[in-house]
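In line with agreed milestones, the collection of sequences with tokenised folds has grown. A representative record is reproduced below.
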Amino acid sequence: MNFDIKEGTVEARLSFYFAHFFLLGCMTQFLPKPLHILSHWLMLLGFISTLGITNAPAQTSPCPAPPTPPVIKGSASAVCRGDSVRLTALGCIGTVVWSTNDTLPAITVRPQRTTKYTAICRLQKGCISCFAEVYTITVNTPKAPVITPDNTIACPNDNVILSATGCTGTILWSNGSSGNTLTVQPAQTGAYQASCRESGCISTPSLPALVRIETPTRPLIQADKPVICAGQSVQLSAVGCAGSTVWSDGYTGNNRMVSPAQTTVYRAICRIGTCKSDSSERQTIQVQSTAFRPAVATLAQNGCPYQTADLSRLIQESPAATLKGSWLFRTGPSANAPAVQSPTAVESGTFYIIFQDNNGCYSEPVAVTAVISACRNAIPVCISNPARIVAWVDSLDFQSRAVRVKAQLRGTAQSLTWQTTGSGLIVDPAALTTRYLFSDADQQRGSVEFTLSTPDPDGSGPCTGATTKLTATIPAQNAPSAELIGLSKKAFDPIWVSNSVVEVAYQLTVTNQGKNTLTNVQVSDNLTRAFAASGAVIRSVTIRTDAGWTTAAGFTGQNADTTLLAANNTLAAGASHTIYLTAGIDIGQANTLTFENSAWATATDVNGMVCRDKSTNGTSPDPDRNGNPGDNDEPTVITLHAASTEGSSVFIPEGFSPNGDGVNDRFVIQQVPAGVRVDLEVFNRWGHIVYRSQDYRNDWDGQPNQGVGSTSAGVPDGTYFYIVRLSNGREFTRFMTINR
């Protein structure tokens, strides 16, 4: 309301107070009684004050009788969303002012939800009515129902029942029918919708419910281990079935664990509704139920002037050397017994040799005896087999503020002591596995250094104890969380090139286990620590990596400047890349036949922080699957038993010349054990596969079968990388040269 108040005039002030007194009367009906009385007294005092300001004669009020509120009539009080309602204000001889700001006697509204409307009647300035009684329009539009099919995948023309929930009225389906359920027999994939009708109102359509129509296809059965030991389990998976996989023994599901007591054949079908596929191919799980006793020699003796015996010679000098698998040297008659620290240099005593094949089955333990004869001018054991320590950081736990560290003893070492430069607490300073409770000062420095030492075995004699250092990084908790990079390192079966030179091959897999892309990814491996430090000589090194990655030039693996395998690469979140490293090692002067090695991976994350990981043994960077590859860093170990003798080892050539001259025209793999299948894959320099055979018969003449290269001229001359897999579990990775 606008009031034209002329300063100093009684007329203006009277008009002002009459109008406000009237409005206050409209409004105070909603106030509590004490405030109601107080408001009237305040208005009355103002009115009296106005009368006492001047002796001028009183003037007539511009609104002697306020108008009565209008009466609102509507065409409907309950409607559906979007419907219109005609509202009319009756009984006003002036201007009707609606709560919508309209000024017509009648208005049309379309409320989207339940809404209240009112109006006033205005005559002239300062003369208006009280509010009209509120007129409420209720909007009754219901919510859309929720549609659920009993099968989201169906066989063509099968019955599918669609159910609608969330509607207390009537369900209206998109095909014109009604009811809470709808039965359809679709011949092709389609979507279904419905609406809800309540009190004459219809909701918006529901979200589409998709029913996919498919014909079941024959599943492919895969087993993680086709050969197991008695009591072991194997994972079976059915791939390619969009419906339910039904196995030959009645089990339903795509994945299952089985523990057959004897060799068993598994098959499966795919079922979708009333349709089912043909049966899959047979998957045979072979169970090896009988443990055997390997034929190894049982007496090991020293050779003067050495005062230790080599247990590995008991294998090399017996028919057992032809077995393919791993040999375990234990201090007790069990595979779980403590390992012999240095099998190639033991003192007098009884030990146990156990064979583990490539399927994980153990032989019976063979007790062997080491007998040490006295020698003139004997070399002390602590010199020929000096004490050594291997140590690493296992895990970091901020909740308990602890660093878990581990160590392994080598040579003649029997005990150790942990010391630290930090201000925290080592829980057990003499244990191989212990925890360090770090302090705030350690965390501020960002790292803590440990020193591990073994006692001097002969006091003032020529022997000394072993000492090594280990640094643990302790990042600040409030620092940006680093992304996770993981690295694994698997060793393949070694291949003997001569009586003293062996070719060892590794597969390194680096994985981005974080949520963002990693840059400047680098992988390094120091072969000197694994081989040269033990007296072996590194004769040759070759590397290959997946397509799109850059290998480091001049890699030798023998010093700090040439240990990079790959550098300046990018790795997307969740992605992995593989590097194959092959080294020719001359072990003629080596003082051990067991070599252990680790690699490192580093990268820069989105926060600019450097994340790193030390490799763990195998093909998984996070074998315990706890989401943190940093707490897995077991060294990768290769144990050499003997150079191969004629007929005892697979022979793979270094290349061939497919020029049609009848000499060396095919890639021939020799000395494969009887009954063993050979799988072959050949890759070019860019990592593209050019040839694959899942039952290789020594017949590849250089012609590609994977769509790369010319089928008339064959693949180009050059260097290629191959993977040979034998059905007995052995695997070989090397390079070959094709030269016509």
User: Anything to note?
Assistant: Helices lie at 10-27, 33-51, 313-316, 381-384, 440-445, 527-530. Confidence is low (pLDDT under 50) at residues 1-25, 27-58, 642-648. The two ends are 104 Å apart (CA to CA). Residues 33-51 form the longest helix (19 residues).
